[in-house]
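User: I need a structural model of Adenine phosphoribosyltransferase from Novosphingobium pentaromativorans US6-1 for a docking pre-check later this week. Nothing fancy, just the predicted structure tokens so I can convert them on my end. Input:
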Amino acid sequence: MSPDDLKALVRSIPDFPKPGILFRDVTTLMSDGPGFAAAVAMLAQRVEAAGAQAIAGIEARGFIFGAAVAAHCGVGFIPVRKPGKLPVPVLAIDYALEYGTDTLEVDPGAIADGARIVLMDDLIATGGTAMAALELIRQAGGIVEEALFLVDLPELGGASRLREAGVAVEALLDFPGH
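Assistant: Understood. Predicted structure tokens for Adenine phosphoribosyltransferase:
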């Protein structure tokens, strides 16, 4: 299966979550067995090339792709969670959204000092969430030099923000617009 085949499996929904936004819905790709397996295999090749010791997946769809890729590669999975979901003392960071702020948390005990971690999510748009996750993992002692996404919306600049922070960014698919 090619990246173009995968791209055809991503549903586009106009005016969601608000007018003027063209939402890229990857649930249609995830529900297609061969497409999901192909996406996981393609992402896994990049993780293996990076020499990752673990994958940090951002809640929620980053859990789906990140955990599947981690299992495929035989490496650990580190969940980057929304607040109040982890039963241990956490590192937390607040970050800006378009309309307000949000918080991410990570269990610092899940990250070995100096471990090579690949950051993963389903989609990179403005990069706010990915930048917050990057900062948390680095605070916990992880080394993040690579971030992987299923989809990039390059016009929104998130991948560029990560590159400016010293992270190589790859996405299997990109879509114009937002």
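Before docking, keep this in mind: The helical segments are 3-8, 27-30, 33-50, 61-73, 128-139, 158-164.
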